Amino acid sequence: AVPGRQAAFREGLEQAVRYAKALSCPRIHLMAGRVPQGADRTAVKAEMETVFLENLRHAAGVLAQEDLVGLLEPINTRITDPQYFLDTPQQAAAILQKDIFHWQIMDGNLTGNIQEFLPIVGHVQVAQVPGRGEPSSPGELNFPYLFQLLEDEGYKGFVG
């Protein structure tokens, strides 16, 4: 999503495709990039969104030719990375990979959000909140409930 870095995105994508093919990995995590240091997020949002969509269109074509799937991850800006561009599920609801750790921090309402957005999910990534620990570690999330919810909703993908 970073203006002026489109060529670097394409080079990184080419390298990621080579690695994915060599490892027989069918999915590639497409990073959105960071809001430039010192920039006002609101002031650069429209331009960054345009670049991000341009990059995703390019990636979609490349990945389709290679029979690979691209995944998006909203990363919370409260704890993990204050500069990350794609910071809420709502920002990219039609095209993103859900991440339960970041989703809980930014929005909560995991049951409703999982039920609403699961049809467009390509991979579920989990970590305990607030410490980003293993699902068995103490924290806010009830993983047995969430795993059962995913099963009840018919999710057949991977959980990482």
UniProtKB/TrEMBL annotation:
Domain (Xylose isomerase-like TIM barrel) ranges: 6-159
Pfam families: AP_endonuc_2
One GO MF term: hydroxypyruvate isomerase activity
Keyword annotations from UniProtKB, A to Z: Isomerase
InterPro entries to which the protein is assigned, alphabetical: Sugar_Epim/Isomerase (IPR050417), Xyl_isomerase-like_sf (IPR036237), Xyl_isomerase-like_TIM-brl (IPR013022)
Biological processes annotated in GO: glyoxylate metabolic process
Protein's name according to its UniProt entry: HYI isoform 9
Provenance organism: Pongo abelii
